Amino acid sequence: MSDMDTIMKNLKKGKQVESNLAMFANSMMTNASRLAQIRFTLNFPVLYESMLEEEAAANLPAPLQQVITEIFRLAWRLVEEPFSGAGMEEEVQRTDRLRSEMIGQMKLLTALSDRFTLCEYVMNRVEYRFREGNLPQGYGNEELKERLMAYLTSDSDRTAMQLKTVRVLEQLPMRMSKGRFFQVLEDGLSVYRGSEKKTVEEVLYMIRTGAMLSEEEDLDVSYSSLQEISRQVFQTDWKQADASLFDALHQKMQKGFGQLNVYTDLLMLSQELVNDLYVIFLSRPYAMADLEEKKTCETIIKEICLAFQASAGPLPSELFQKFSRLEGVQERCSAALEEANAQLEEIQDKYKQLLPGLMLDKIYASLSLMEKLFSNSLFVELNGQKEETMAETADEVYIAQVYGDLAGELKALLRQLPRNVGRAVMAKVLTFLPLFVTNRQEVEAHIEESLASCSDQAEKTACVEILETMMKDDKEMA
Q: What mean pLDDT is predicted for residues 301-319?
């Protein structure tokens, strides 16, 4: 049995509590520090090399450029600045501010991604005004309905069937009246009555970004060129447009999607690095270091920082040979930390009255923070703002207020948007709500009504193509 196993066993039995609480925390801090240090060291050259790629570095938006620069500044402080209590506090605060800024940038990129998805929806449905394409002879609404129903009922798993249904409903011609749409919205939100307010807020966030109800001004400042592409698509009068305009906007869209993917990947990699830096700075006062391992990591980090400052080009191959000295450490530390994290909350709850008197409350608070930083949710909020409020139950009054506010915003938005863009927004919003069709008969009726109400042959042709491709792809993957 390892020392950590013994410590956890003793804490469960209430033996030698004071010393074991301290040893448990110090052991966790050491493993967390080593894991974060090695993960940062392994990922840092990936960030450096990403910045050498022309697609990533050229015309990188200012907010992302500032993020990258600050990461290199913090990395340099990690290996060059002498450790001090005051310095550690400053580094933690700087890392926390940077992380908050990055969460804001990811929200902007998410909002942009939602806008581009709506653009794609709109352009798909006008494409056959400028391209040759017709429904196969004899292929009518009834045949498509039967094919869709067979596709939806072919899976016995209820969850899989629901996911398929959501995808199909999103791609059918949107001909739902606004009155019906807002009734579905109200009914969908009412399902969350009795749940935590946090759950409702998460749904509202997805709806608001999906419907372009957020981040407008910030997008104009930070990602104006991509925002302008979406505006051009939404503001185009497609009844008057010609093939050359469609092709030009389609090319802009494809390029914009490429840039958006590059920015998102870069920000996610950066967030991994910042989360690890945060753990390193939090654990420095408490962790025991393996000096040889620490020296290897700091040597690699320092060389990359110097190369960045000098714009030196590709990293030397000798640098990567040093990684062999770190093999296996990440796996061992991760396993030990995972085992301890499984007991952390229980230990904190059991001994929460003792921790302040032992002056261990701060270190245990840091351990809880680090557990979030190591989680798969890279952009998880750390400060727990309004946690007590968000844990409250969403009662009938709250749901009614939420619906009223959201419906008011959506009604104002739909009045401003061209009809085809408004339909795209409505189709997207429905994907975030519980299914409004609850049985086979309702699904079948909705498909019939959607197809029968669409007199635009270009749109119907596009929808059929999308749906047929979806069914074919699923069949090939099965």
A: 90
Identify the DSSP state of 478.
-
Question: Residue 62: which residues within 8 A CB-CB, separation 6 or more?
Answer: 222
Other beta carbons within 10 angstroms of residue 349's beta carbon come to 8
The answer to whether the beta carbons of residues 122 and 231 sit under 8 Å apart is no
Please report where in the chains the tokens 């029968």 appear, as a residue: 452
d(CA 383, CA 369): 9
The DSSP output letter for 453 is T
Structure tokens at 315: 């990293």
What predicted TM-score, i.e. pTM, was given to this entire model? 0.89
Contacts (Cβ under 8 Å, ≥6 apart) of 260: 109, 112, 113, 116, 226
- Half-sphere exposure at residue 456, Cβ-oriented, CA atoms within 13 angstroms: 18
What is the identity of the amino acid at 237? D
Residue indicated by tokens 């501010």: 97
DSSP letters, 319-348, are: HHHGGGGGTTHHHHHHHHHHHHHHHHHHHH
Contacts of 175 (CB under 8 A, 6+ apart): 423, 449, 450, 453, 454
Residue 385: predicted pLDDT? 47
Amino acid, res. 188: G
Going from the C-alpha of 69 to that of each of 305, 308, 320, 436, the distances in angstroms are 10, 9, 23, 48
